[in-house]
Q: What sequence folds into this?
């Protein structure tokens, strides 16, 4: 006799699939998954090994958050084609969830890195770092753009890219190196949004790969020109050519209450002369 054809108790069958036997009892009660045999004398449910693939399919669908109603409909017309289409829908949804979780993880890592920087940083230090190229969503601004207009522009872009929550991305401002060298420290031309895993698309700004000069400024905005003068002096001393844009981004907004404690990270692409 084939051992796989032998009856298994509800406890044995539940243990084999890593579930509680009450789950099997409930599936039986709602007509989703019936036992192979029910003892007429004591009502004990029994199952066969050959029922395992069906149960595993149900458990897989439940793990994918397929509703009981959807699974019942599928079981009524179970076929390879129906299962294929159902799994395609769930794979698409799962891919979206994975992308979301990857973005959340990237955001958490960014916050963690910023907090580590805050705890160990020397605000007077100016350093050279290596960065990989990545894409930024940008909106154009000028000195006449009001704060309300900036908020509207950023909000429109977050809706365009279906970001949902502000914490999922990083925000900052851009000012050209030429403006800085000309002493136009208020001549910001763009706001940027840094979105994790953003693929290249036409119209996006590319923050180039290579070496960057990195510095920090703490306090109100009127102190930034002095910090840039220190950056220029550092660049001249080390024979560095600043080019492109200066990228400014706050790194401690979520742990301060006063603007006097606000810290801006400044990064500028460099070349050795």
A:
């Amino acid at each position: 006799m084939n051992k796989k054809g032998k009856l298994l108790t509800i406890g044995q069958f539940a243990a084999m699939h890593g579930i509680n036997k009450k789950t099997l009892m409930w599936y039986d009660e709602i007509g989703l998954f019936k036992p192979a045999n029910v003892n007429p004398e004591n009502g004990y449910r029994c199952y066969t090994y050959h029922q395992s693939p069906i149960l595993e399919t149900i458990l897989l669908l439940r793990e994918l958050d397929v509703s009981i109603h959807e699974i019942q409909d599928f079981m009524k017309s179970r076929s390879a084609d129906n299962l294929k289409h159902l799994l395609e829908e769930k794979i698409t949804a799962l891919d979206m969830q994975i992308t979301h979780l990857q973005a959340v993880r990237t955001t958490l890592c960014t916050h963690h890195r910023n907090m580590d920087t805050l705890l160990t940083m020397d605000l007077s230090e100016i350093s050279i770092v290596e960065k990989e190229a990545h894409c930024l969503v940008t909106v154009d601004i000028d000195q006449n753009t009001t704060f309300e207009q900036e908020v509207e522009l950023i909000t429109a872009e977050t809706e365009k890219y279906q970001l949902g929550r502000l914490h999922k991305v990083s925000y900052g401002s851009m000012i050209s190196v030429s403006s800085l060298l000309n002493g136009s420290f208020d001549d910001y031309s763009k706001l940027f949004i840094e979105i994790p895993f953003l693929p290249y698309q036409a119209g996006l700004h590319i923050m180039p790969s290579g070496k960057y000069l990195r510095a920090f400024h703490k306090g109100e905005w009127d102190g930034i020109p002095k910090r840039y003068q220190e950056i220029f002096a550092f660049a001249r001393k080390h024979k560095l050519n600043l080019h492109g844009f200066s990228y400014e981004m706050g790194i401690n907004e979520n742990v301060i209450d006063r603007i006097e404690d606000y810290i801006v990270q400044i990064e500028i692409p460099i070349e050795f002369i």
User: Anything to note?
Assistant: The first strand starts at residue 7 and ends at 9. The first helix runs from residue 10 to 16. The two ends are 85 Å apart (CA to CA).
